[in-house]
Design a protein that fits this description.
By secondary structure, the protein is mostly helical. 79% of the residues lie in helices and 0% in strands. It has six helices and no strands. α3 (41-63) packs antiparallel against α4 (68-89) and α4 (68-89) runs antiparallel to α5 (95-105). It is globular and about 45 Å long.
Length: 136
């Protein structure tokens, strides 16, 4: 997928603000491009919100693995992020890209879950930028 100049600028800004730590930069770009290209800003904001929430819950769980309430909440967040990812992937025009995202994120195995966590790290970085801009 060819990214627009706007999407490239967002990614460059995220590279800058995150100190170059984005984990799924290319995939984040494809998602943002599809969402912007379809003017689906509501879905974009939901994906960013729930992705950031999943990243935050995952970080809490890493430090306190015995918290059952957090485990249940993380499972709900995984389901929500999977639902939003599926909706976003349906916006892609390229069959190869759909197959790739399905294989990497939607398989339901532990590798796909870790890929989602990595993507949620990037979504969290984007959410932090949104919050900073909103609070100015």
């Amino acid at each position: 997928m060819k990214l627009s100049e706007d999407t490239n600028q967002v990614l460059e800004f995220l590279d800058y603000t995150s100190g170059g730590t984005l984990r799924k930069r290319k995939d984040l770009g494809a998602l943002l491009e599809a969402l912007a290209g379809n003017n689906n800003y509501t879905l974009a904001n939901e994906l960013i919100f729930y992705g950031a929430a999943l990243w935050g819950g995952y970080r809490i769980l890493k430090t306190n693995t015995s918290n059952e309430a957090t485990k249940l909440e993380i499972e709900k967040l995984f389901e929500k992020v999977l639902e939003l990812l599926t909706m976003t992937i349906e916006l892609f025009d390229e069959e190869e890209l759909i197959e790739r995202f399905t294989r990497i994120y939607l398989k339901g195995d532990s590798g796909a879950r870790m890929n989602i966590i990595d993507l949620c790290y990037d979504l969290n970085e984007l959410k932090k930028v949104q919050n900073r801009l909103k609070n100015k």
